[in-house]
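I am still getting used to backbone structure tokens and would like to learn alongside you. Would you supply a protein for us yourself, any chain you care to pick? Start from the sequence, derive the backbone structure tokens from it, and show both lines together. Go ahead whenever you are ready, and we will take it from there.
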Amino acid sequence: MTDIGTSIPSVTVRGPQAPGNTAALDPVFTVSDLSVFYGEYEAVRQVDLSIGNREITAMIGPSGCGKSTVLRCFNRMNDLIPGARAAGKILYHGEDLYGDHVDPIEVRRRIGMVFQKPNPFPKSIYDNIAYGPRVNGTKGKMDEVVEEALTQAALWDEVKDKLKQNALSLSGGQQQRLCIARAIAVKPEVILMDEPCSALDPIATTKIEDLMQQLARDYTIVIVTHNMQQAARVSNRTAFFTADVDDKGERHGRLVEFDETSRIFTNPTDQRTEDYITGRFG
């Protein structure tokens, strides 16, 4: 890597989207024949997809189908799990993300992560944002770095007068936006979000969804969500996963269908996709 050592319900989908264009024209990630193992267990089997530059890609599907496992492959978070390994290829701008020369720490700087539950550090709001830039040796005025990140995360106006307060004093929705600000403070290219709204109320969820659409002007975003309406509202493309059960009773996550979000929700090509979207299973 360069420089890295019944009928389908009516939904409103994000646009514009060209019909029939299932492959990203300007891919940030190209995934080929990806399988993920935990020891001998194959958790995810033979995934192929591409993630477009400055698009929002949603991953949907029932629990245990491998969505989060695939998401964590994009910044090599699975490396931290003993016995986990990935087979196949994930190319990041054409370079093998799992190549011997690639530094996983640099990968995680370029590809940020926001988790299901807000996890601010037990520090001030200011220090939460400044932590990453300080570790990375960011030059320049830290006050400007902090303000820019909080502004991008649509949080600056709410916290600018209490930057020295403990971040844990913020509401759940504010904490999640703080975590997004913390992720973008180190200037990543990609933001991964693993069910970022599952612990939030509807008002906070709406703010996060609005924020995602604003951030997609500058960042590539991949989101795992159980909320199909959320996927329909915010994403350009949607990947539907399910889990097959083999003759040993083991579940293996599989990608069933990947397409523009409008087509997935209004005219899917696979019956399993339609069954999930219409609530017949899952």
